[in-house]
Structure of PH domain-containing protein:
Amino acid sequence: MIVRAAQVSMLSEVTLGDTRAGHSRYDPAVLNIQRTYRRLEPLHLVFALVWGLGMLIPVLAHRSKGPGVVASLLALDAAGLIWVYLAAPAASIVVTSGQVIVRNPFRRHVVPRRLIEGVDTETALTPRLLVRNAPPIRLAALNLNLARGYQVNAGRHQRLGVGAMLEQVPVELNDGQVDRRVRYGHVLLAAVAVGVTLAAVRYLLSIEQL
């Protein structure tokens, strides 16, 4: 199903203020409205709790092996929590009156509202934001950890997704093009997690069997 943003144009026709030169057509309070959706499924919370607390068991069980073993196990614990963060709350969508900000784990997209044509929830595994004269943008925040076709995919996430937020936030048409940037902080965080994991595993394999 493709959720079209046509309804948003109706909102842009409502005059909420003086439209003469020097005046905004919208009340400033209305223009400050924004909607945010951050990806955080119960599965992510459960995994974070199980991993974070569960890794404390081998830490306590092998604390007599020395500080190197304890540090390595704690490093693996931290690396796992980093991956949970990158897979879940690192992705978000923010809708303002002038633009939509799509934050995927490693890329950030800022799209002017006038270029948005809708949301495609059917032609790809992950929903995509349809942008005029530009490639669709993957919406990682709306990606479920469920099998494709599961009923929730068309219900809860579609209602809480971009289509609903676009209807709730009035449009302020402006100039500008799509801005795509790499989230270098998250790239560095992922690199640190990989490095820590490899170093910890290598150390644990180099010592006597636990």
Q: What stands out?
A: Residues 1-15+26-39+90-177 form one domain. The longest helix spans residues 184-206. The radius of gyration is 22 Å.
